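Sample 3 of the quickstart, ligand S-adenosylmethionine:
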Amino acid sequence: MTDLPPNDAQGLPARAAALDLLTAALSRRAGMDEGLTHPALKALAPRDRAFARALVMATLRRLGPIDAALQSRLAKPPPERVVQILRLGLAQVFGLQTPAHAAVATSVDLTAADKNSRPLKGLVNAVLRGLVREPPALDDPELLAPQWLYARWRAAFGEAEARAIAALIPQEPATDLSLKAKSDAAALAEPLEAEILAGGTLRTALRGEVSAWPGFAEGRWWVQDASAAVPARLLKLQPDETALDMCAAPGGKTLQLAAAGAKVTAVDKSAGRLTRVNENLARLGLSAEVITADAAQWGGARQFDAVLLDAPCSATGTFRRHPDVLWAAKASDIAGLAAAQSRLLDAAGRRTRPGGRLVYCVCSLEPEEGEAQVAAFLSRTPQFARDPIAPGEGGAPAASLRPDGALRILPHHRDGGTDGFYIARLVRAE
Ligand SMILES: C[S@@+](CC[C@H](N)C(=O)[O-])C[C@H]1O[C@@H](n2cnc3c(N)ncnc32)[C@H](O)[C@@H]1O
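Result:
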């Protein structure tokens, strides 16, 4: 059970902040990240801030079934502020196990705190009390994802796979760690209460402040989902080879390439996000050349032994940690991102030396951003061919390997869940 702010006026600022954060998360892509930096949220006491964030995450993880339950009780849609208050109220009762009387009372207070919503406090009280008395079913996979996304997954992977993907949406994921030195795994597994996964990722049972966990201050590991750690391993870097990480920030894969002993160039168009790469490199005691540039237009003609393109994407595969991606994404975003991926893939091809290898990956579940990108690139770029990934290579789950040697990692392919990814390895002719 989440540590709760008290059920009195002091609990209201946290809930009011959750209301703003939920509104931001649902309004646009990256709205959640922007909302988390909002001064009103930052001004809260740490415990209230943590509660506000946990409440919004719990709401987003069950948003589909929550909305279905609300629709069954509302004759017509109330104003947006009231909808958000009702969503947060239900998530407190059914996601955070907040005592029902506290969730209802604070929701009513929040409704009364604004003159426009005040007249609807009776409605909020009645709807929440009704649903507390007759709890709705909140785990139907077909309701857990937005309908348009669920339909896409069913078309791409089949009904059973779509259900298995969606069934993971309400689950809070464990944290995965990548190690600077693979030989450290046995020594770190015990203090980190971790299981060692195929490929060497540690999956820890620890919760809370990451920087307090054993080995963080000494730079022995960094946080990286088990699937996200696969692409860099597939480049099989030898010490002193040159490697280009084309969309590098915040740097999880850059760290892997540098830890493998390669001479790494890390490019990203976001200077702000690159500060995270530099901080991470410094903490880990690793080095890389870090460049702020649009990787599709970056000047010069340098070529590399190995190129990694972890392209900007809809990130629908990361819903376990970022449930907002499901609700903020729009079908039109996918088309726009696919155009950028195609441009970046052409640039990645030009940056790969003859005989060199190129790994393309996206943390998206959408075929337009994965399979279709690589197929189109190969048909317009005859110098490149697939370099099929072998079973188990890079620690990838067996179920993820496709007949063409690419990986389509689905979130349920690993016990306890994993990020969804598409990964292909290509080689340029000599
Ligand atoms: C999926 S994230 C990369 C994650 C990173 N590889 C890691 O493992 O930590 C995509 C990144 O692409 C960057 N990006 C988007 N368009 C870009 C472009 N045209 N050139 C370079 N970077 C770009 C974004 O700023 C973002 O940091």
